[in-house]
Design a protein that fits this description.
There is one protein chain. This protein is mostly helical. The chain has a single domain, classed as Up-down Bundle (Methane Monooxygenase Hydroxylase, Chain G, domain 1). It is built from 6 helices and no strands.
């Protein structure tokens, strides 16, 4: 019975890796679409959202089956509970990437009011955070989970830089206001992705230690 349970846990790990890879690709592609004004790629990212939703349901079903059909010990119970919590944040990351894609579809035919410098930096940091948080779960790596949590300050600082720059641009030229709000929303979605990655990392800490901080409500 334990061998079968361990095989199911291994399959769960693989599914979590697959879902993590898809949301990483969503973030990377949605920012690439924004930079290159690629509406077709942005629409592709929006389409990823359904695939991510489907993966969330599949993993949720597996977790519930493990809880109902097996009798997990405390450590296994924390692990499965963590996976259930993680996929909620992972699904919301997919939503945020799709939201950026929708904005790109709307503004891609316009001249951008600013060079996109900090937004790609935010995206790169959030991709590292998402990958790190999923890797921490798969490899039961407490140190890697803590690294993800610590990286959140980097994303928050970039968001504040973008916000200050955009507010300054609006003060100088009110005509750029509409697009400035769009870029502010894009950077806010990236900040939220970072927050979701922190949530995931904190659930990994819980699965390994039994302790959990109050996670962010998003």
């Amino acid at each position: 019975m334990r061998t079968r349970f361990d095989r199911e846990l291994e399959t769960l790990n693989l599914e979590m890796i697959q879902m993590g890879s898809l949301i990483e690709r969503s973030i990377e592609s949605t920012v690439q679409a924004l930079i290159e004004k690629d509406v077709e790629l942005a629409q592709e990212v929006i389409g990823y959202d359904k695939d991510i939703d489907d993966m969330e349901r599949e993993i949720e079903t597996r977790c519930l089956r493990l809880l109902l059909q097996q009798q997990p010990v405390a450590a296994d119970l924390r692990l499965i509970s963590t996976a259930l919590k993680m996929i909620t944040d992972m699904e919301r990351i997919g939503d945020n990437a799709a939201d950026i894609g929708e904005i790109t579809c709307r503004i891609a035919r316009e001249d951008y009011i600013k060079e996109l410098r900090h937004i790609p930096m935010m995206a790169e940091a959030t991709i590292r955070m998402v990958k790190g948080s999923v890797d921490a779960f798969v490899h039961r790596d407490l140190e890697k989970a803590q690294q993800v949590i610590d990286t959140d300050d980097e994303v928050d600082d970039l968001f504040e830089e973008i916000k200050a720059e955009l507010i300054g641009m609006i003060h100088q030229d009110a005509d750029c206001g509409a697009q400035a709000v769009d870029f502010l929303m894009i950077s806010k979605y990236l900040e939220r992705i970072g927050d979701h990655a922190v949530n995931i990392a904190e659930w990994v800490v819980f699965s390994l230690t039994g302790e959990h901080k109050n996670h962010r409500i998003l």
